[in-house]
Structure to design on (511 residues):
RNA sequence: GCUCCGUUGGUGUAGUCCGGCCAAUCAUUUCGGCCUUUCGAGCCGAUGACCUGGGUUCAAAUCCCAGACGGAGCACCA
């Protein structure tokens, strides 16, 4: 009705003022995008972006923002994006060899495919070459100050004695770094910025340092001299032609540091967009790779896909579509303030995606058994989906007794409507079939509840964010395939995970 | 301590650059109503926000100043 009147209105406007209509619809076209326009996107031949994760574990939900926003911009501008694993710290942010593929999987789940994939640990020689060039330009020096010593000098705006070394010495010492002749902490290469820059964070930052621990990837295990993120990332962004950098506020100062390097090389720095941190409501577990890992190691979580873990693997197992997450992330925009993402927003998106295809089944939690009397029908035949009669009915044999949820057990002499079956009155601890029509429900006197036969049913474990719930589902659930999503009537949506000998396991999706 | 950045309903967001059409958009949440043999869907409706104080102006969510609150960086982490 609404759509129709909208059409009518549109036609009316088309008749009266065709020019205005075109204008209105052109504006609508622009409004199609929820994200703000990228700065100067029109000035570049191709919008090129990168998604630069640290492969130190599978992704939590917050990570989804990167591919969601970058991938959406790619579609919008018909641009390009790569995934670049910034795995240049084999020690404190030690890469997890499985995480590289896990992350690419997660990105695919979210609905995107990168145009290219790089690993920084494959490109160390490239960073060395640029370091050499930078040294030659007088933009870097080797420094053997301890961290504390340099920090003190830096905070006072004073240069350390190494800053004035001649280029030949710096070259020599840097080559010794590359050859691994120093131990961890002995020598670094610093970028010469501005030693009394008003922001202490920007003064002569470290570009390369020594790390004794070998990189877990075989191809990179011989390197001991590793670039820091600000250097490596800055070089790579230029080399792959990145036009727009989109990253978190924790890297707000990065652009300023990297500009010093770009100035030495006479490169043009990309446009930058910074966003704040994402918090999720609804979880007890903190959303950080390291704390989730600790909980798994301690046995408090079953794994990365435990329903209580705020990870993408978990949401996926619960039957939440990647698109539901992506859309919620797009809705957050790109503001620099920290944001709380409500899970309900992901749920609302997902419900819209799965409601239509999720058939309906009964699942009774903690069932209370009640005998039936009064000769009810032998079989109940509720529809698989109330909006899709063409899908047919389920067949639920009745037997002599049913299980209902304890909260649904009616008071004495009260009537209750067993959904898909009929009206019963609770008399002498028995549900007596009354044969009344559905009108008694319409009149509002009788509650509709779900149930399963006490004899023929499927024991089912429903894994939820609050822990596992045991109960029994109607027989048809045994025939469902893994990955099917269903709606357990009056309980909520769930994804069928597997059938075991003793029970079927399903994951609770959301109400 | 030094340096950046931010603050629109419960949550997120639009609007802020270029002041008026903003008693402020959209989504979600919550609460009602209708419908439905549903916790779902659909339809209708309601509640609910411009951090504070000054200033400029005919006019401020929007510009200026101050303050409060929040965040980030000052790592040989990313």
């Amino acid at each position: 009705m609404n759509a129709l009147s909208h059409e009518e209105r549109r036609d009316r406007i088309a008749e009266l003022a065709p020019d205005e209509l075109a204008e209105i619809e052109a504006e609508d076209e622009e409004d199609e995008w929820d994200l703000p326009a990228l700065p100067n996107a029109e000035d570049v031949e191709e919008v090129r972006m990168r998604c630069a994760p640290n492969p130190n574990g599978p992704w939590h939900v917050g990570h989804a923002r990167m591919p969601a926003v970058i991938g959406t911009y790619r579609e919008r501008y018909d641009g390009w994006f790569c995934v670049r694993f910034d795995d240049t710290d084999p020690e404190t942010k030690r890469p997890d060899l499985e995480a590289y593929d896990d992350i690419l999987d997660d990105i695919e789940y979210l609905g995107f495919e990168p145009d290219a994939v790089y690993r920084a640990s494959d490109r160390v020689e490239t960073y060395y070459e640029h370091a050499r060039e930078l040294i030659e330009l007088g933009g870097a020096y080797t420094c053997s100050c301890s961290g504390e010593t340099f920090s003190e000098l830096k905070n006072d705006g004073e240069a350390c004695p190494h800053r004035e070394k001649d280029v030949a010495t710096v070259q020599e010492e840097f080559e010794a770094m590359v050859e691994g002749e120093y131990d961890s902490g002995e020598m670094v290469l610093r970028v010469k910025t501005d030693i009394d820059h008003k922001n202490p964070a920007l003064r002569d930052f470290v570009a390369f340092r020594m790390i004794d621990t070998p990189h877990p990837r075989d191809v990179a295990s011989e390197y001991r001299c590793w670039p820091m993120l600000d250097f490596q990332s800055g070089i790579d962004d230029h080399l792959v032609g990145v036009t727009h950098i989109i990253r978190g506020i924790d890297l707000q100062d990065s652009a300023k540091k990297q500009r010093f390097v770009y100035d030495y090389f006479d490169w043009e720095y990309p446009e930058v967009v910074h966003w704040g941190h994402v918090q999720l409501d609804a979880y007890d577990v903190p959303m950080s790779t390291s704390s989730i890992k600790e909980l798994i190691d301690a046995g408090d979580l079953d794994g990365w896909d435990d329903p209580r873990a705020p990870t993408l693997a978990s949401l996926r197992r619960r039957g939440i579509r990647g698109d539901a997450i992506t859309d919620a992330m797009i809705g957050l925009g790109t503001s620099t303030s920290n944001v709380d993402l409500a899970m309900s927003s992901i749920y609302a998106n997902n419900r819209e995606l799965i409601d239509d295809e999720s058939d309906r089944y009964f699942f009774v939690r903690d069932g209370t058994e009640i005998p039936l009397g009064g000769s009810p029908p032998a079989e109940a035949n509720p529809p698989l989906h109330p909006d899709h009669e063409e899908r047919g009915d389920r067949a639920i044999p009745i037997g002599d007794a049913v299980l209902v949820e304890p909260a649904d057990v009616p008071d004495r002499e009260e009537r209750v409507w067993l959904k898909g079956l009929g009206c019963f009155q609770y008399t002498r601890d028995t549900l007596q079939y009354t044969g009344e029509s559905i009108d008694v429900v319409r009149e509002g006197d009788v509650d509709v509840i779900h149930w399963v036969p006490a004899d023929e049913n499927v024991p089912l474990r429903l894994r939820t964010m609050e822990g596992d719930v045991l109960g029994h589902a109607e027989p048809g659930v045994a025939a469902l395939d893994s990955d099917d999503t269903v709606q357990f009537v009056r309980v909520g949506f769930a994804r069928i995970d597997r059938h075991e000998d003793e029970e079927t396991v399903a994951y609770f999706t959301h109400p």
Observations:
- Confidence is low (pLDDT under 50) at residues 1-31 of chain A.
- The two ends of chain A are 29 Å apart (CA to CA).
